[in-house]
Design goal:
With 201 residues, the protein is of the alpha/beta class. It is built from six helices and ten strands, in the order βαββαβαβββαβαββα. The longest helix is centred in the last third of the chain and has 17 residues, at 159-175.
Length: 201
């Protein structure tokens, strides 16, 4: 496993230039939720919502068949029981709460948080973030259109809680000696340190 992992969330500040830099870097990349659509066959796709897997599993298979799929314990079993597919989704043990999970994922309230915890569990010594806006940048919640509220009732609504939880995770990672750096172009996060992809990769 590479010492450096890039986590790509779905904040609206992501640019094509950033996506091209990530692709050209050859670094291990975890895409959060629909962001795999920007990076075909990224190394890993992480999503924790069963409703998301109902909606997007088939697209992961046609669009990014080489990507390794990750979710939290119970989700893949549920999906397989309902759809008789999804055997290729890796389930990870987790617990609720906030903080850094050193042996299993901590939920933290959203998939972007857990993707960073996954990077740590995969052995990353440096974690680079893009698309971690943690705000509604220019009134948008994601780089893509909003999710259908009927299917996804929670749609990056509580950004203050997301910000507080993530900053706590970042502090824990820093205390563990992990170099975590936020290369998102727009972000509400005050921790971790800020930089650019050009400097960090």
């Amino acid at each position: 496993m590479t010492d450096t992992i890039i986590c790509v969330a779905s904040g609206p500040s992501i640019t094509k230039k950033q996506i091209d830099l990530v692709r050209e870097s050859g670094l291990f990349t975890i895409c959060v939720n629909r962001t795999f659509e920007l990076l075909p066959n990224c190394d890993a796709i992480f999503a924790c919502d069963i409703r998301w897997w109902y909606e997007y599993y088939e697209l992961t298979q046609s669009h990014s068949p080489k990507s390794k799929l990750y979710t939290i314990a119970g989700i893949a079993d549920h999906f397989y029981k309902k759809r008789s597919k999804g055997q290729n989704i890796v389930q990870l043990d987790y617990e609720s709460g906030i903080g850094l999970g050193k042996h299993k994922l901590i939920h933290g309230g959203n998939s972007g948080y857990m993707a960073v915890n996954l990077a740590y569990l995969l052995g990353a010594k440096k974690i680079i973030l893009i698309g971690y806006d943690h705000q509604h940048t220019n009134g948008k919640r994601h780089w893509h259109s909003d999710y259908d509220k009927k299917k996804f009732p929670y749609n990056a609504d509580n950004i203050d809680r997301m910000k507080d939880n993530f900053e706590g995770l970042a502090h824990d990672l820093i205390n563990e000696g992990i170099d975590i750096v936020n290369c998102s172009i727009e972000t509400a996060l005050e921790t971790p340190r800020r930089s650019t992809l050009e400097k960090e990769i």
